[in-house]
From TrEMBL:
It comes from Halorubrum lipolyticum DSM 21995. Residues 74-97 have a biased composition (Acidic residues). This is Putative PQQ-dependent glucose dehydrogenase. SUPFAM superfamilies: Soluble quinoprotein glucose dehydrogenase (SSF50952). Residues 166-360 form the Glucose/Sorbosone dehydrogenase domain.
Length: 499
């Protein structure tokens, strides 16, 4: 099966972009003028930066349904230019809707680390030390402690990464590959083991790169990692440049959970013989048959059709997930219109590409809408709706935000936020750093109500990730706009959330 979703969306974007250049704004009615200005600015940015494929992503120009299936070691086939510089339209209009979300509490941000490129993960130490490990997408893991960011990296994998920013199609303005995830073994203090997800070069001309899950150990002094201790657990050929997700997390059950995107082929998310578009779950302390890891016996597909490693599926690009207690919550980046957050449970099918959020989705056209939706898979599995969703644009055409950034349940005492699910929106603009922070109130059923946090002094970054250390919450991002090639600049910053 072949989908021309990207082709359709791209043609639609270019058509609207060209039409937008001739919008009769000056002759329009006053009531229409803000909408037309916003539409022209957004579409002009789209024409330059490629909205259909930026962090909102495109499902695009897929080949056939089965291409890109990847595997572990078993050998079977198998996670963003405007000329005005973002300072507003010459007529003073703003393309972003600042009132879409209900206004939430005001918070502060304290800068704790700078000089990074693209910080996309903060993982607290599990050995009782006051350390946080900050991942920089360009391949370096830094240690942050009471004295700040240490100059000596904990681990430098930059020489093992695919060449970031090189060879990308012109519709991908931001490279999603690189150092993508890290997790400490629950018994790290005793065994010194930790795990890393990263994008490595491929020698196969038909494969863009390889997605690697590896185990490392700390060096004898315990202060840095031993780069020669790598043991590869998963080596997955990746045929496209994006949609590889990357978060890895140990659950309260001691098993390692990992997020994988659909590899830019939406149909992968409904296939059970590929790990793409799924959350997998493995036992790093055991071995099953000739695999370099074990398969938990209660994984939902053990003894059934499909990959035994799979825990949940039907996901597009689950960029950032985290355990809060025994609940695994993941943000899933949308394509056409909607961003969503899901509570991940064993054996659930989250609907992509048959649905986008709670809405019908046509995987052939790459479009979403309302109507009579498919509510079960071809295998008869119910399609599970997200706990929250938001659109890329409001009803008037103003931008709400592109690309959800999964977060965590905040356990601190910052006014009004205790037990709220904090998550981010990467950006609502391509020409300026315009991330957003959202707090949602978990519910036993139905959609979680959302509020936008009001940041004292404003939020000056594109949000790349959120992190948690005890009761402290952190926000990671870059001050570089999407149109400024963020991976070529050291504009990355880490903030701690404060009153």
């Amino acid at each position: 099966m072949k989908s021309d979703g990207f082709g359709y969306v791209y043609r639609f974007v270019i058509k609207d972009y060209m039409l937008s250049l001739t919008d009769p704004i000056m002759d329009s009615k006053d009531s229409d003028r803000p909408r037309l200005i916003a539409r022209r600015r957004v579409l002009r940015a789209v024409g330059t930066a490629g909205l259909a494929s930026a962090l909102a992503g495109c499902s695009g120009d897929e080949d056939d349904q089965n291409e890109g299936n990847s595997s572990g070691d078993s050998g079977e086939d198998d996670g963003p230019d405007e000329s005005d510089g973002g300072n507003g339209d010459p007529d003073g209009e703003d393309e972003t809707d600042p009132t879409f979300f209900e206004q939430g509490p005001t918070v502060g941000l304290t800068e704790v680390a700078t000089g990074l490129t693209s910080p996309n993960g903060l993982i607290p130490a599990v050995d009782g030390s006051d350390r946080r490990f900050i991942l920089d997408q360009v391949g370096i893991i830094y240690v942050h402690d009471a004295d700040g960011l240490r100059s000596t990296p904990f681990l430098d994998l930059s020489d093992r990464l695919v060449a970031l920013g090189e060879g990308l199609p012109n519709w991908i303005p931001y490279d999603e590959r690189g150092l993508l995830g890290m997790a400490f073994h629950p018994e790290f203090e005793e065994n010194g083991r930790f795990y890393v997800r990263y994008s490595a070069p491929s020698q196969d001309p038909d494969t863009d790169h390889r997605e690697i899950l590896s185990e490392f150990r700390v060096a004898a002094d315990g202060e840095v990692a031993d780069p020669d201790s790598e043991r590869i657990l998963l080596d997955m050929p990746w045929h496209r440049e994006i949609h590889q997700a990357g978060t890895i997390e140990f659950g309260p059950d001691g098993y390692l959970y990992g997020a994988l995107g659909d590899g830019l082929n939406p149909f992968n998310a409904q296939e059970l013989d590929t790990l793409m578009g799924s959350i997998y779950r493995i036992d790093v302390d055991e071995r099953t048959d000739d695999l370099p890891y074990g398969i938990p016996e209660d994984n939902p597909l053990v003894g059934e059709e499909g990959r035994d490693e799979m825990y949940a599926w039907g996901l597009r690009n689950p960029w950032k997930m985290a355990f809060s207690g025994d609940q695994l919550i993941a943000g899933d980046v949308g394509q056409a219109m909607w961003e969503e957050v899901n509570v991940i449970e064993s054996g659930n099918n989250y609907g992509w590409p048959l649905k986008e959020g709670t809405h019908c989705h046509d995987p052939q056209l790459g479009t979403s809408g309302d109507g009579e939706c498919v509510d079960v898979s071809e295998r008869g599995e119910p399609l599970v709706d997200p706990v929250l969703e938001f659109p890329h644009f409001d009803e008037e055409g103003y931008a709400v935000g592109f690309a959800v950034i999964g977060g965590h349940i905040h356990t601190g005492s910052i006014g009004g936020l205790s037990e709220s699910y904090l998550f981010g929106i990467y950006t609502s603009s391509f020409s300026e750093p315009a991330g957003r922070l959202i707090a949602a109130t978990p519910q036993a059923s139905g959609q979680w109500p959302m509020q936008e946090l009001q940041v004292d002094g404003g939020l000056d970054i594109q949000v790349l990730s959120l992190g948690q250390d005890g009761s402290d919450s952190y926000v990671l991002g870059t001050r570089a706009a999407l149109s400024e090639d963020p991976l070529s600049q050291q504009e990355g910053v880490v903030y701690r959330l404060t009153e």
